[in-house]
């Protein structure tokens, strides 16, 4: 309810653990891979190959396993660590599904990372001149 010219108070948005974990990932390359993994899992949720990530895979190791924030993000979203035949995997447990909302959140974070990278490039160019 608004009285006179007073505007209603806006409460600050409280970030969820997943939102905090996502905002901690600044690697554009990691966000690209996470976006693809989530998209595939969201679009084809029953396809087993999209519900399991082999952590020793070269590209996955470089962009997720070796980037603690990226690995933490997937764990926060419900992926679980699993070992099978001496190999480590991240899997989406039965009954858990990724959503397009998650995919869009990664896209938004990618845009933020691009903006930040652009700002840093501009600042570096200004220092050189």
Automatic annotation (TrEMBL):
It comes from the Eukaryota. Residues 28-104 form the PUB domain. InterPro entries: PUB-like_dom_sf, PUB_domain. SMART domains: PUG (SM00580). Gene3D superfamilies: 1.20.58.2190. CDD domains: PUB. PANTHER family: PLANT UBX DOMAIN-CONTAINING PROTEIN 2 (PTHR47694:SF1). This is PUB domain-containing protein. The lineage of its organism: Eukaryota, Viridiplantae, Chlorophyta, core chlorophytes, Chlorophyceae.
């Amino acid at each position: 309810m608004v009285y006179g010219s007073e505007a209603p108070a806006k409460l600050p948005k409280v970030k969820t653990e997943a939102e905090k974990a996502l905002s901690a990932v600044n690697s554009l390359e990691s966000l690209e891979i996470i976006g693809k993994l989530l998209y595939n899992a969201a679009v084809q949720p029953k396809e087993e190959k999209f519900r399991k990530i082999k952590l020793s895979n070269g590209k996955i190791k470089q962009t997720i396993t070796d980037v603690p924030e990226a690995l933490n993000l997937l764990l926060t979203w419900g992926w679980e660590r699993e070992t099978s035949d001496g190999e480590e995997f991240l899997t989406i447990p039965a009954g858990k599904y990724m959503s397009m909302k998650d995919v869009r959140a990664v896209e938004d974070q990618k845009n933020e990372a691009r903006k930040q990278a652009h700002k840093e490039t501009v600042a570096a160019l200004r220092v050189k001149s």
